[in-house]
Amino acid sequence: MTYCIGIRLNAGLVFLSDSRTNAGIDQISTFRKMIVYEKPDDRFMVLLSAGNLSISQSVREILQLEKIDRGPNQPALTIWNAESMFDAVRVLGAAVRRVYQQDGPSLKAAGIDFNASMIFGGQIKGEAMRMFLVYSAGNFIEATRETCFFQVGESKYGKPILDRVLTPATPLDEAAKCALVSMDSTLKSNLSVGLPLDLLVYREGSFWSDQMVCIDDENPYFQMIHSTWGQRLREVFEGIADPVWDGGAAEHPLQPSARYAPMGKITRPEDRIV
């Protein structure tokens, strides 16, 4: 399995992915889930992928060559000549559907789901940054101000910190820190996600990035994130008052609901819940 995060902010974009792939207990491998498409001063795009590795690798290979016919006297649409990120993600969707046409029937016959999900974000000169979540049917949705991040893969463990911290106004470095905390929470709770990690930060309007790093278990900053986050969580937890059950004085009493009665008990065979 895997875990990938894409964050769209006013100041730029943040992408983070793990690299663990497993096909059973004794079939654990390392494959990078992030790929960068860059044409300096013209376009910058990042693709993160989760799901069946053979599908995502095929999509990535086809994407660089995929074309959408735009009719007579018009050059075919590719990610390299698309005039908007919307057109670029249409090409990605077409690549996903092409892989499904090629491999879908064989996978189905073998009892394997066509399972792939992707985050595709970036900026093409002449328009604002955009980011999309692409599903296994090739359809997609776009990040908005109300939903400024996407996750694919093992998303549930690392989502709470993203929900509580991120807004479009979050600075890029804070968002990168938040993404790493989210990843650390996932690593703690799920063995199917693992190091090394790929982290990339893109600044709005730059059309390139040199803020790319591969993080392994010896990275001092991620070691600090891991130890500090766990320690501070314990400190905050210990600072929260315990519930008072005996009706004693408390600053925040655990008082009964005025609207709902306590849950009833079944004490005899003939008792019913309702």
Instruction: Flag low-confidence runs.
Output: none
- Average pLDDT figure: 95
Would you identify the CATH H-level superfamily? Aminohydrolase, N-terminal nucleophile (Ntn) domain
Distance between the termini: 43 Å
Helical content class: 25-40%
The count of β-strands is 12
Judged by helices, strands and strand pairing, the structural class is: alpha+beta
User: Beta-sheet strand percentage?
Assistant: 15-25%
DSSP helix count? 5
Sheet of most strands: 5 strands, antiparallel
CATH topology: Glutamine Phosphoribosylpyrophosphate, subunit 1, domain 1
What would your notes on this structure say?
- With 274 residues, this protein is α+β, with helices and mostly antiparallel strands.
- It has a single domain (3-234), classed as Aminohydrolase, N-terminal nucleophile (Ntn) domain (Glutamine Phosphoribosylpyrophosphate, subunit 1, domain 1, 4-Layer Sandwich), CATH 3.60.20.10.
- Helices cover 29% and strands 24% of the residues.
- The protein has 5 helices and 12 strands.
- Strands 10-1-2-11-12 form a 5-stranded antiparallel β-sheet, with helices on one face. Strands 5-6-7-8-9 form a 5-stranded antiparallel β-sheet, covered by helices on one side.
- Strand 7 and strand 8 (130-134) form a beta hairpin.
- It is globular and about 80 Å long.
